Amino acid sequence: MGQSWVETEIAGCDLGDERLNRRLGAMLGALGERPGKSLPTAFQDWSNTKAAYRFFSNGNVSEDKILKGHFAASALRIRATGGPVLILQDTTEFNFKRAAPEKIGFTHVSTGHKLKDGRRRKHVICGFQMHASLAITPDGLPLGLTAAKFWSRAAFKGTAALKRKINPTRVPIEQKESMRWLDNLRLSTELAGVPERCVHVGDRESDIYELYCLAEDLGTGFLVRSCVDRLAEDGDTTIAKVMAQVQASGTHEVRFRDAQGKDHCAVLTVRHATMTVRPPIGKQRKYRHQELQIIHAEELDPPQDRAPVHWKLITNLPVATHMEAVHKLEWYALRWKIETFFRTLKTGCRIEELRLVTAERLANCIALCCVVAWRVSWLAMLSREAPGADPAAVFTQDERQLLDQATPERKRQAQRDLEFYVRAVARLGGYLDRASDAPPGTTVIWRGFSRLADLVEGARLATPPADTCG
Question: Where is the Transposase Tn5 dimerisation domain (predicted)?
Fold first, then answer.
């Protein structure tokens, strides 16, 4: 019999004590069965809940050790696939309300209502941040996290205030929080073991010249959205000025949803060019220039009720034709997958409702929830990419029998494949499963898993104990 998903994701973990290793597996299984439930609900009784609290506060436990097994499993999934692997990087914040916020740290300064003198009240938000790298296939199937960094600040100083005292470009990258982008790139590339297949994708915050140089040193690819008009060619011009002279190679259509869930279609005019990109003036002695590809995609005739789509991408991947430029635009469009992962983590697992009182305990709990959130996202996409897969690799025999019974009569004629059972779980979570409905997403799947766990427990309690009498 093969390993369960829990055994696979913790196989590479070693917390230095076999009891802690067993507790890790039991807790991951419990959270996976009831994602989004409170810790007491997930762990079912006071004994297991108390053991979980002790686990999170144990000095031998850390988020790195908890995620080590999942990282190893992600590496195996990467090597089992063919072709390029997109490694998406981004940062998210977790905000909390605490009587003693100094035990957790701070994320940013929030501006509140106006005071009588016209100034606005400002207060520091309690919480901490996570920077994660998520590996996916070009088809959008999430293979798992490859790196994660948690941190908080004892005190928060706004970027604008710092800029009045020092030029940020003069500060070494090693002394900035931006170093997390380089750390994750290095760790993810080493973990994957196939740098030539990796493409590291990031938003405008990842537009860091040192990242370009590190990618070259590691022999790996990057695709980032630019936010800086860098010096180009001989240094007497900039990227924007060069691109203004480049003729469009064609158009490309993208479809997306806005924050309100409304569908949009945008037609982009595409321009691309290869040019010499130079480092900032203060760093030209330390870093050499790079030969990079620039892609600009700007929406034609944007509507007035939303901002136009305008992507400025930089990459070290080949872009010699219009189709290659479109290919890179399609890859960048997949960056929203990590936003979906963060939403599943924060909303589905209800991270910001946790009552743990220190940053260390919260980070340990969130590390466990990261694996749960990945599995929900993986199932949602796997059922679309490989609907005919064997459901026994995901669901137990008892779970499949209960899902069969919960399936409406009109739906029971379908083939009992992975898609059938994922849709059955989604229906438990509120998915209507009408002919016109899109495939189920992560929200209804995580809700459905919680209900499925209750059905399994109810069936167990309803089954009379076996007669042990001779």
Answer: 371-464
Q: Where are the beta strands (DSSP E) in 196-289?
A: 198-202, 221-225, 231-232, 237-238, 250-257, 263-277
Residue range 18-65, pLDDT digits in tens:
999 999 999 999 999 888 888 898 888 899 999 999 999 999 999 999
Q: Residue 162 domain-assigned?
A: no
Does residue 144 come out as left (phi exceeding 0), alpha (psi in the -120 to 50 range) or beta? Answer: left
In which band, very low, low, confident or very high, does the pLDDT at 264 lie, cut at 50, 70 and 90? confident
Query: How far apart are the C-alpha atoms of 85 and 209, rounded to whole Å?
Result: 22
Q: Six-digit token pair at 376?
A: 């929900």
Q: Judge whether 31 and 453 are in contact, CB under 8 Å.
A: no
Question: What CATH number does residue 395 fall under?
Answer: 1.10.740.10
Q: Pick the closest to residue 226 from 248, 198, 204 (CA basis).
A: 204
Measured CA angle at 367 (ends 361, 370), to 5 deg: 140
Give the pLDDT score at 156: 52
Confidence (pLDDT) at 1? 39
Closest listed residue to residue 124, CA positions, set 144, 153, 148: 153
Domain ranges, residue 433: 386-461
**Domains contained in the chain, number:** 1
> What's the Cα-to-Cα distance from 280 to each of 228, 231, 233, 295, 372, rounded to whole Å?
10, 7, 13, 20, 42
- State the Cα–Cα distance between residues 385 and 72, nearest whole angstrom: 23
Query: Residue 425 in contact with residue 399, Cβ under 8 Å?
Result: no
Burial (Cβ within 10 Å: 0-12, 13-18, ≥19) of residue 186: middle
The residue among 405, 389, 383 whose CA lies nearest residue 452 is: 405
Task: Give domain status of residue 169, yes or no.
Answer: no
Given a contact cutoff of 8 angstroms between Cβ atoms, the answer to whether 269 and 308 are in contact is no
3-state secondary structure of 24: helix
268 alpha carbon, distance to own chain's centre: 27
Dist CA 69 CA 27 (whole Å):
14
The DSSP-derived string for 54-68 is HHHH-TT--HHHHHH
The whole-angstrom separation of Cα 358 and Cα 360 is: 5
Domain contains 100: no
Residue 83 within any structural domain of the chain? no
Neighbours of 182 (CB within 10 A): 19
pLDDT at 335 over 60: yes
User: With contact defined as beta carbons under 8 Å apart, do 271 and 319 qualify?
Assistant: no
Pairwise pLDDT comparison (446 vs 164), residue with the higher score: 446
